[in-house]
Amino acid sequence: IAEQVSHHPPVSVFHVSNRKDGFCITGSILAKSKFYGNSLSALLDGQAKLTFLSSGEEYVITMPYAHCKGILYGTMTMELGGKVTIDCEKSNYRAELEFKLKPFFGGSTSINQISGKIKSGEEVLASLDGHWDGEVYINDLKNGSTDIFWNPTSEVRKQRLKRHIVLFEEQTEFESERLWQHVTSAIGKGDQHKATQEKFVLEEEQRHAARERKENGTEWKSLLFWHNATTNEWHYKYEDLRPWDPLNDIAQYEKDGVLQTMQRHLSNRMSTHKNMCISNQVARHKNRHRKASDQPSNNSQNTESSCSTPESVQELSDDEGLGSPCTQCGKETSHLKEIHTAVLSLQKAQQDIHKNLTALSKESLYRRGSPQNFVDSRCWFLLCIFLTFQLFINYVFK
């Protein structure tokens, strides 16, 4: 989940959640650029916080910068450069890595080089060197052994996550693909003049909206993240750092930017939510009743009010509709039921496939075993006949 939370300066915030594998990542990036004539660097000023849910350890990670050479002349190349640190305050471990740019007189082996060290406090435990897109070796300084730390083989590359995007028709108004669609289309067609015009129109609309907010005194608020002014950190509004419960948690899913976890005990949670809603409505009706009972009834000439006797919850439900859940409950129940039905259908299909595979396996074993048993029986039968015939010949010619 990612969102640009500021335009001046351009800050983007992201959140990654994988509770089943036991980690979450939250970070913010301030994009900067530096121009050096024939080269350009895109700086990522910010950090990411990796949290391991089971141990509660937090690793703060900085990021390298992207360096592009050959903008005006020469072969255009892209590299990663700069120093990266990985810190864990709880365990007191620290890693320092350096992404090295190719030197002017360097060969092909000097491309994408990396070096670094792993420390515990001030003690250096190990050193690293190699190529970040190839083999990286780790040297244990205590025993002097060297092992392969990272090797992106073809099998590893095949395991890279596939890119999934939200369907265009399901995107909201301010999502990047929808917001910049006309600019992107013009660039794709090679029409730079049209792209510049569309960019100008888009920026003017944004400036006009900002002026209106300022005139109306309306503060712009982020949709999915909130800012902690004390620590100057951005946090995901729906962050869930609970360790994964395999007995209760089924799967994580995202809807409208909100990450949620589908659980087996849905009925208990929904009934609790529903009961809380009903209790709140009953309390409100009791308050109204107390106010009404203090005033004389216009339709009654008796000294005693006909409303002096409290109504039952059932009567309130019939009159005011308390028996029906609130709108939020209804939407959440409907959505969870849809997901639950889909998961059950997948589980049923998986069970059917498992049954079919088991049946095929048994049939295969039976077919393998049947000819073998037949061959074994036939061999014994022929052996008996041969021995009987041999005894008969010996008896005749004795």
From TrEMBL:
PANTHER family: OXYSTEROL-BINDING PROTEIN-RELATED (PTHR10972), OXYSTEROL-BINDING PROTEIN-RELATED PROTEIN 5 (PTHR10972:SF213). This is Oxysterol-binding protein. One of its GO terms (cellular component) is cytosol. One of its GO terms (molecular function) is cholesterol binding. The lineage of its organism: Eukaryota, Metazoa, Chordata, Craniata, Vertebrata. Coiled coil: none annotated. Keywords: Membrane, Transmembrane, Transmembrane helix. It comes from the Eukaryota. Pfam families: Oxysterol_BP (PF01237). The chain crosses the membrane at residues 380-397.
